[in-house]
Specification:
It is a single chain. The two termini are 28 Å apart. 25% of the residues lie in helices and 25% in strands. Strand 1 and strand 2 form a beta hairpin. The model has no long low-confidence stretch (mean pLDDT 94). The protein has a domain of 214 residues: FAD-linked oxidases, C-terminal domain (Vanillyl-alcohol Oxidase, Chain A, domain 3), CATH 3.40.462. By secondary structure, the protein is α+β, with helices and mostly antiparallel strands. The chain is globular. The protein is built from 13 helices and 21 strands.
C-alpha cells in the first residue's frame, strides 16, 4: 500500500490535519492494508469539522471504492462500496423507479459517510435517518472482515451513526424505495416569522420539507424565511449546461454583515408574495449547493464553522433565543436552515431526535467560535444535541449528556477497537470514547 503525506481539511476548512493517507482501489487491497495498519477512513470529507480528520496519524481515502456491486430490481436492494457518492446512487436509479429513501444536503457525501454519521434529509419526519434503511454493512476490523445486520445488536447500533469507530466501512446494502421518476414538484412560499414557520411545518403534508431562514432578521421579522415543500414526480429531466465553480477564496468583506443582510433581503424576495410552484430535476432541491463547485471558498482562506443542533419540540423558546442571539451578532452567513424532525434514528450516537433542527454557517472570524460555544450550551441546557458531522468547536463538557446511549456506544467501540486506532480528531477532542482502552 502506498502512503502519501498530505494536509487535508473538512468541508469547513477551519480545521486541518497532516498525515499519511492511502487510497485503496480494491476491496482486497483495503483488507490487506487494514490488516497491517488499522486507521480511520474518510470519503469526500463533506462533514464540516474534524470528524474525518486524523492529525499526525494515518487514514484511508476510500473514494476509489465507489462501485455498484449488485442490484435486485424486484426488491430494490442495492449493494455498493462505501466510497459511492449518494448523489450518484440517486441519479443512477431514480429514472429506473428507485431512490435512496434518505438523501442528505449534498450528493457528494459517500455511502460510508452517510452510515457513519447516520445522515438525515428533508423527509426525516417521514422516512427517518439513513441508517434505518441500511440492511447490511461490511466492516474491516484489523485482521478480520465482518458482515453485520440490524440483528447484530450492539455492534450495529454502534456502527450506524458511530463515526467510523467500529471498523472501516467497506461496503453496504441499502433498501431503496420506489419512486415515480427523477423530477420533483417544488412549492416555495414566504414565511413571515418563526411562529408562522412552526405552524407551516405542522400543517405541511409533503414528504420533503425544509426552510431557509434569514438568520440576520430581528424583531418582528425574527425567523422569517422561505418554506420549500416537494414531492417526487415523473417528467423529462432537462440537464443543465454544467455546474458553476468558485475559482478562488473570496475576500473577507464578501460575507460581511451588511453584505449578508442585503443578500438575505433579496433572497427572501426572490419568491413572489403569492408563492410559486415549479418542476425541477430531483438533484436541484436535494442538493442545491452542489451546482456550485467549491462553494466553501466563499468563506475565504480561514473557512467557516457550522452550528447545527436539534431541540425538543417543547423548547421552541430556546430556538427563539438562539435566533435572537445570532441576529444580534451580525456573524451569520446566508446559509441557515430550519427543519422539523421526527423520532427516527439508527444508532446509539445518531443525531436525529424529535424536534426542530437549526443549522447556521458562520465565517471563521473573531467572535464566531465564542457564539457557537454559547449556542451549544443553550442546546445542552434545553435537552437537545449538536450534530457531530458539522461540529468543529465544542468541548467535551458541552456534549456531556446530549447522547443518552454514549456509554453503550463507548463500551462497544472500545471492545471493537481496543487500541483506539480508529479515533479521529473529533472523537479525541470531545473525549467521546473515554480515556484508556
Amino acid at each position: 500500500m502506498v502512503w502519501n503525506k498530505l494536509t487535508y481539511t473538512g468541508w469547513g476548512r477551519a480545521r486541518s490535519a497532516s498525515g499519511e493517507v492511502a487510497r485503496p482501489e480494491r476491496q482486497s487491497t483495503l483488507a490487506r492494508a487494514v490488516a497491517e495498519t488499522l486507521a480511520p477512513a474518510f470519503g469526500m470529507r463533506r462533514s464540516y469539522g474534524d470528524v474525518a480528520l486524523n492529525d499526525g496519524g494515518k487514514a484511508y481515502d476510500i473514494t476509489r471504492l465507489d462501485r455498484v456491486l449488485s442490484f435486485d430490481a424486484e426488491t430494490g436492494i442495492v449493494e455498493v462500496e462505501a466510497g459511492m457518492p449518494i448523489g450518484d446512487l440517486g441519479r443512477a436509479y431514480a429514472s429506473k423507479g428507485w431512490i435512496p429513501p434518505v438523501m442528505p444536503g449534498t450528493g457528494f457525501a459517500t455511502v460510508g459517510g452517510c452510515i457513519a454519521n447516520d445522515v438525515h434529509g428533508k423527509n426525516h419526519h417521514v422516512k427517518g435517518s439513513f441508517g434505518q434503511h441500511v440492511t447490511e454493512i461490511t466492516l474491516v476490523q484489523s485482521t478480520k472482515t465482518r458482515v453485520i445486520t440490524p440483528r447484530s445488536g450492539k455492534l450495529w447500533k454502534a456502527t450506524v451513526g458511530g463515526l467510523g469507530q467500529t471498523g472501516v466501512i467497506a461496503k453496504a446494502k441499502i433498501q431503496l424505495m420506489p419512486c415515480k421518476g427523477d423530477m420533483m414538484v417544488l412549492t416555495e412560499r414566504r414565511i413571515s416569522d418563526l411562529d408562522d414557520f412552526l405552524m407551516a411545518f405542522d400543517e405541511s403534508k409533503t414528504d420533503y420539507t425544509v426552510g431557509w431562514i434569514d438568520a440576520t432578521a430581528t424583531g418582528k421579522h425574527l425567523g422569517r424565511g422561505i418554506l420549500e415543500e416537494g414531492e417526487i414526480t415523473s417528467g423529462i429531466n432537462k440537464k443543465g449546461d454544467g455546474a458553476l465553480e468558485v475559482p478562488f477564496n473570496a475576500p473577507g468583506w464578501a460575507l460581511s454583515g451588511p453584505v449578508v443582510r442585503v443578500f438575505n433581503e433579496l433572497y427572501f424576495r426572490r419568491v413572489p408574495t403569492r408563492g410559486r410552484t415549479s418542476v425541477k430535476p430531483i438533484t436541484d432541491p436535494f442538493f442545491p449547493l452542489d451546482a456550485i463547485h467549491n462553494w466553501n471558498r466563499l468563506y475565504g482562506k480561514r473557512g467557516f464553522n457550522q452550528f447545527q443542533c436539534v431541540v425538543p419540540p417543547e423548547r421552541v423558546d430556546v430556538l427563539r433565543k438562539m435566533l435572537e442571539k445570532i441576529g444580534a451578532s451580525h456573524l451569520a452567513s446566508p446559509l441557515a436552515v430550519l427543519k422539523k424532525m421526527g423520532p427516527g434514528r439508527g444508532g446509539y450516537m445518531s443525531f436525529p431526535m424529535e424536534g426542530y433542527t437549526l443549522a447556521v454557517d458562520f465565517p471563521n472570524r473573531e467572535g464566531s467560535q465564542e457564539l457557537i460555544s454559547e449556542l451549544t450550551d443553550m442546546a445542552q441546557d434545553a435537552g437537545g444535541r449538536i450534530y457531530f458531522a458539522k461540529d468543529g468547536v465544542a468541548e467535551a463538557a458541552q456534549v456531556a449528556g446530549m447522547y443518552p446511549d454514549q456509554g453503550l456506544w463507548a463500551e462497544t467501540v472500545n471492545e471493537a477497537d481496543p487500541s483506539h486506532a480508529l479515533e479521529t480528531d473529533l472523537v479525541r477532542r470531545l473525549n467521546l470514547r473515554g480515556k484508556g482502552a
